[in-house]
Write a structure and sequence with these properties.
118 residues; alpha+beta; six-stranded mixed β-sheet; 6 strands; 15% helix; globular
């Protein structure tokens, strides 16, 4: 995380970003992979090399370059991006409504723990 304070020369995208029920304004790095725009949301350090691990696809029709010479590497995205890190949490939370009651499961499992005791 030490390098986050350094100025990055690449492109950036300003977008509304949703995490769970919260939507907020965020600035992410912008790259084009095979001509398709992607917002880079998260990084890890592998052997001293910054490596992206969370990428969000962007609709090219909703991506607009900023006006003005000072912000030539800045883009705006006219939609809400969803954080892929929380998609599994959302779908697993939906599955909890259909899961058996934990207390009921404990009663059924009594005596089946290691050594037969709790």
């Amino acid at each position: 995380m030490r390098q986050r304070s350094k100025v990055r020369l690449g492109m950036k995208v300003i977008h509304r970003h949703q995490v769970g029920a919260s939507v907020f304004r965020r600035v992410s790095e912008l790259v084009f992979i095979n001509g398709k725009p992607k917002a880079l949301l998260g990084w890890i350090n592998i052997g001293g090399v910054r490596t992206p691990i969370y990428i969000c696809d962007l609709d090219p029709d909703k991506l607009h370059r900023s006006a003005g010479e000072k912000a030539k590497n800045t883009y705006y995205y006219d939609d809400v991006t969803l954080d892929p890190r929380y998609e599994d949490v959302k779908s697993s939370a939906l599955g909890l409504a259909f899961a058996p009651d934990v207390a009921e499961q404990d009663d059924q499992d009594e005596g089946h723990t290691a050594g037969g005791r709790r």
